[in-house]
Prior knowledge:
The structure is a single chain. With 217 residues, this protein is α/β, with parallel strands linked by helices. It has 2 domains: 2-92 and 181-212, Periplasmic binding protein-like II (D-Maltodextrin-Binding Protein, domain 2, 3-Layer(aba) Sandwich); 94-179, Periplasmic binding protein-like II (D-Maltodextrin-Binding Protein, domain 2), CATH 3.40.190. Helix content is 34%, strand content 28%. β2 (40-43) and β3 form a beta hairpin. 35% of the residues are buried. It is an enzyme of class 2 (transferase). It is found in: Cytoplasm.
Amino acid sequence: MRYLTIALAKGRLADKAMEMFEAIGISCDEMKDKASRKLIFVNEDLGVRFFLAKANDVPTYVEYGAADIGIVGRDTILEEGRKLYEVMDLGVGKCRMCVCGPESARERLEHHELIRVATKYPNIAKDYFYNQKYQTVEIIKLNGSIELAPIVGLSEVIVDIVETGSTLRENGLMVLEEVCSLSARMVVNQVSMKTENERITAIIKKFQAYLKENAGR
Ligand code: PRP
């Protein structure tokens, strides 16, 4: 039997996803050893293997078929724009993509002024401002701690993920506009969906049953 390969976005999401896979009977004890530097984990009995990758790389692995299935946030799926099937909302990692900034930026935003937008998600920001709002802005790509940008004067606003809102609050910033809602998704390679249809469909069905059972918990 060919291995079914599953790519998980490293970090919090991977832990949650593994819990879910375990609950539906696809476990991988090898993966629980946090001290290990191993990158790929195999369950020989089930013919399944997991690997951890940087979130942004998960859609790439899935598009090229190096992974049949991926678990990754919708933010990354939208940003990467890869060819793949998004088959399920896992209902975890819920948060929002927002335009944020100080109160003083609200008016400039509303008046469609040529403002600077700092973000880790230039494609999502471009799509939002150019295609949805028809607003010309200057987009500045950053790689983390995006909230710093308006504080030190790099940009007027940011496009970033808001979960609890505490990072914004602690830095005197607020949500000015909402771009979209986000959560963890299961994605599938388009060819694997045909060639491994039975195994992949079985996993999707088990996940759906698990999610239904645990709804509202
Ligand atoms: C994310 C995001 C915000 C923060 C939002 O950052 O970019 O900074 O979480 O969460 P909150 O609304 O609950 O405060 P992350 O921790 O992923 O690090 P980053 O700075 O590398 O983006």
